[in-house]
Amino acid sequence: MNIWIVGTGYVGLVTGLCFAKLGHQVWCIDQDKTKIERLSDGKVPMHEPGLPELLHDQLALGRIHFAHEYTHLHAVDAAFIAVGTPPTERGEADLRYVFSVVEDLAKYGTPGLLVATKSTVPVGTAAKIRERFDRLGRSDIEVASVPEFLREGNAIEDTLNPHRLIYGVTSKTALTVLEAIHKNLASPVVVCEPPTAEMIKYASNAFLATKISFVNEIANICDRIGADVSQVALGMGLDPRIGPSFLRAGLGYGGSCFPKDTKALVNIAGAVNYDFTLLRAVVEVNQRQRMAPLYRLLNWFEDLAGLTVCLLGVSFKPGTDDTRESPSLDLARQLVAHGATVRMVDPVVKDAKVPGCGTDLSVTCDPYEGLLDADAAVLVTEWDDFLHLDWQRVKNLMRHPFWFDGRNVLDPDRLREAGLVLANIGRGVKP
Ligand code: NAD
User: Fold this and answer.
1) Residue 179, number of CB atoms within 10 A of its CB
2) d(CA 108, CA 196)
3) Quick one: which of 322, 304, 312 has its CA closest to 343?
4) How far does residue 242's CA lie from ligand 1's centre (Å)?
5) Residue nearest to atom 32 of ligand 1 (CA)
6) Backbone angles phi, psi at 304, to 5 degrees
7) Whose CA is nearest to atom 10 of ligand 1?
8) How far, in Å, is the centroid of ligand 1 from the Cα of 77?
9) How high is the mean pLDDT of the chain?
10) DSSP label at 227?
């Protein structure tokens, strides 16, 4: 099949390369000319395991092409929209990039083209896209919703072996094209109407976010009653009705999806006069949870003015350089507001744009450099690089030995043996 992927970010690039690997001819289109030039030269603009090798292979095989315009493209079977849908001030998904692509596709799309959204879009968007194509005289174009579930850091595996494929379609023709594109994947398929497909995506992310906020609430109670949330989660997760994933207490979720999708679903519900009380609480708990280290530090030091705090981890999770909605940035902003000097360490993120912070904070990839003369350290992102430090060396480098493990991944005994003071989340361990 000949496929366009419009929007060559985390989702678009991975999807395009995986479709190429499945044997299709793929054109990735992006308005960012520099990105397109770099990709054409074999350079991957983000950190994602396996992506440079996959790009190299598919360029060599001649199955992947990059363009910033829709020129010299013809006889295309399907176009996947993978542009961003960032939140507006009010928390709704901003669809302006999606609709701008729709205008382009109406202009350049070949007759009978299937246009499918991979971007996460509010329920009813496929219908709005349909209306726009009709208005633009393109009733021949098919519209479908094929939501994306890949996880950054594991994106290639998730795309080649998805847990499920959701085809939100309104015609047999659209279904046939989607089946042909994915025919070499052995995943379960759910065929439904586009609004249902759109809702499956939001409901899935909202549910996972709920699990995270739930276990964080349990952790906060554990802290107060002397129970260990790690063991509570282990005991809960062994029940197959609950399952172990997304039950690790920590500083809450971040990234480009959960924060915006939870808020968008609250808005989607609000637009039909439904108050999604539970999800509103999930969002509130998550925001509060990010500040757990701040309160613990204030408790310990009373005043943070003049102190140096080292934050380990800038990306919102390990395995990616994505810093969108990263708890680390929120925490950095609050620490700076309390008069602390913040140093950041990350193995792949090179600079940290902290909103409301005035200047960008510098980021080093060397934890020992970041910890030198620091008064406190907070492990925010559980990169492997931070888990097995030379704790004695760390103790000798720091001015004060205070550590906060924001992901409950450090071995308390080893840190304490080295003379460090360790606080964590919900493990009943007090500094
Ligand atoms: P991204 O910001 O990394 O990439 C979006 C790309 O679209 C950018 O390169 C931008 O230049 C390009 N673009 C914007 N307008 C364009 C236009 N008119 N024409 C051509 N290109 C245009 O975004 P992302 O993280 O890949 O997310 C894309 C969508 O997929 C979002 O709706 C997101 O919610 C959803 N999603 C993301 C993930 C994830 O893990 N990142 C997972 C599942 C779903």
Assistant:
1) 13
2) 29
3) 312
4) 32
5) 119
6) -95, -5
7) 7
8) 21
9) 95
10) -
Mean pLDDT by 10 residues, the chain (431 residues): 96 98 97 97 95 98 94 82 93 94 95 97 97 98 98 96 98 98 96 98 98 98 94 97 96 95 95 97 97 95 96 96 94 94 95 76 94 98 96 98 96 94 83 50
Query: Cβ distance 153 to 320 under 8 Å?
Result: yes
The pair of structure tokens assigned to 297 is 């530090």
Cα-to-centroid distance, 98 and ligand 1 (Å): 10
**How close are the terminal C-alpha atoms of the chain, in Å?**
60
The finding on whether 396 has its CB within 6 A of some atom of ligand 1 is no
* 286 vs 253: CA distance, rounded Å: 7
| Helix, strand, coil percent values for the chain (each to nearest 5) | 40, 15, 45
Element (H, E) at 101: helix 96-108
323 pocket-lining for ligand 1 (C-beta < 6 Å): no
Question: Please, which residues have CB within 8 angstroms of residue 209's CB and are 6 or more apart in sequence?
Answer: 253, 258, 261, 262, 279, 282, 283, 286
Note the pLDDT tens digit of each residue in 223-257. 999 999 999 999 999 999 999 999 999 999 999 89
Element (DSSP H or E) covering residue 6: strand 2-6
CB 88 within 8 A of CB 159: no
Ligand 1 pocket member 119 (CB < 6 A): yes
Coil, strand, or helix at residue 216? helix
The domains located in the chain, with CATH, are 2-192 (3.40.50.720), 200-287 (1.10.1040.10), 290-424 (3.40.50.720)
Verify whether ligand 1 is closer than 6 Å to residue 48 (CB atom): no
- The yes-or-no answer on residue 28 being catalytic is no
* Tokens describing residue 69: 């315009």
Hey, what are 68's tokens? 């910033």
List binding-site positions for substrate: 149-152, 201, 246-250, 254, 317
Q: What pLDDT score was predicted for residue 360?
A: 73
Q: Residue type for 165, please?
A: L
Global pTM? Answer: 0.94
> In angstroms, how far is CA 196 from the centroid of its own chain?
22
The residue annotated as part of the active site, out of 18, 28, 222, 257, is 257
d(CA 324, ligand 1 centre) in Å:
12
User: Which letter does DSSP use for residue 326 in this model?
Assistant: -
